[in-house]
Amino acid sequence: DNNIADGATYDAGRTTGAEWYESYDSRTDIKIEDVRLPDDPTKKTSSITIAFRDSDPGHVDYAVYFAQQALRTGTTPKEGQLILQLMDIDGAKAKGNPLSINFYDILCFKIDGEQQILEFETVNDTSYPAGATYDDLLAAIKKGIDDNSVLKGRVTAEFGADFSAMHKDGGTFLGRSIVLTVTGWKNNVITDAGWSFSADQVPDKTNFASDADPDGGGIYNQLITSTVLLDYVGSGSKGGDLVIGAHSTGETSTSKGMQQFNITVERDSSLEVISSTNNTLQVVTVASKAGYTHTYTGAYERDTGVARAGDLSAQGDINVHTLINDLSGTKKVGPYTGSEYNYGTGNSTGEDQNIDGATPAQNNGYAFTDVRVIDASGFLGKLKLNAILTQNVIDKYLDLSKQDTGTWWNLKDGVAAQPGADNV
Q1: Proportion of the chain above pLDDT 70, given as a percent
Q2: What pTM was estimated for this model as a whole?
Q3: Among candidates 235, 190, 171, 154, which has minimal Cα distance to 77?
Q4: Peptide bond before residue 419 is cis, with ω within 30 degrees of 0
Q5: How deeply is 187 buried, as exposed, middle or buried, from its count of CB atoms within 10 A (0-12, 13-18, 19+)?
Q6: How far apart are CA 293 and CA 307, in angstroms?
Q7: Which end of the chain is least crowded, N or C, by CB within 10 Å?
C-alpha cells in the first residue's frame, strides 16, 4: 500500500487444476477472485492452499474469493453413500491420535432393507503400537469389504472430508471421514446404519465421536475449510489483512464464506485481521510447520539448518483510532461499532482501507470477530492474538444445535500447548 495505489487483481475463473494460490513478496493488495474446483463432488475447498509469504510491512492485504460452487466439504452424499466418522477425542487431545482407544470394528447397515454386517480389524494403539491412523482404518475397512462375499465388488471405501469434534474440557480436533459407496443393488438405499464392537470393553461415549450417516450430516459439523500457510507476512513488521471467502459479497449477497481456517505458520508472521466474508468464520486452528522446533535462536532453517518454529501475531487494525475511508470516499473518525463500517480497497496514503468482503465491524482493533474456537494446541511459537464476540454471535450460532458453541482459546505463549493446563 505504501508503493502502489490500486493493488492487483487476478481472475482465476479459467484456471484449472490449481491447488496452490500464493501472494509472494507483495508491495500492495493482492486479490484473487473466482477460484473454482473441478466438477467432482469428492473435491473439497481445503484441497487448495492459500499461501501468504514475504509481504511488505504496512497495510498490504491478501484476499482470495472462491466461486460459490467451490465452497464445499467434499462429502455431499450421493444416493447409495454412507459417511463414517470415528474419533477418540481424549486420544486426540492427550496424544495427538484420534484413534488411540477405538473399539469399533463392526459396521451394521441395511441396503434396500437387507441387513449387512461389515467386520474388520480393530484399529487402535494396541493393534498399531506405532500409532493408529485413518489410513490404517481405511485399509482395514477395505480389507473387511474384500473378505465379505456379499459386499465385495459392490461396496467401495474412500476418504471424504475432514470433520471436527470438541473435547468437553476445550479444544477442537480434526478427523477424517470415510465414505462407503454402494452399487449393485436395485435401489442402493442405505438405512439403519450404526457401529458395534467385538471387544468386551465398552467405549467411553463421553469423549468418543462415532457416526454412520447416509445423509452426510453427522453428529459433528463438517465445516467448509480453507488451508492457509503464513510465512514471514509483514517481513519482520506488522503486515496487513487476510480475507478468504466467497466471490459474492455485500448486502444483496446470500453467499457465505469459509467456516474454518487451518493455519500453518513457517517463519514469524504479523497480520492485522484474519477473516472470511459475510461473518462466516467459526473455527481457527493454528499449527507450526511439521518438523519445526521452538529454539528462539533468532535464526531460521534457511540460515542455520535449524527448523525454528515461527511466531504469529494478529492483533487487529493499528489504525482503528484514525481516519478511515469508506466505499463512498468520505472519511469517518474511529473507532466504530457495528454497521458504521464500510470498506474500500488498499491505497498508497498509509491509511488502512480493509479489503473487500471483510466481516462487518471487523475494523474494531481485533484480529478475529465472532469466531467461537481458536485452537493453537499444535503451535510451538510465540502467539499473540486477540478476538471479540459481538451481539451477532446469537444469530450466527443459534442453529448449530448439534454442536457445543462454547468458546475456548487453547493458547500457550512460547511453548507447545499442554492438554488441560492452558485452556483459558
Answers
A1: 69
A2: 0.59
A3: 190
A4: no
A5: exposed
A6: 6
A7: C
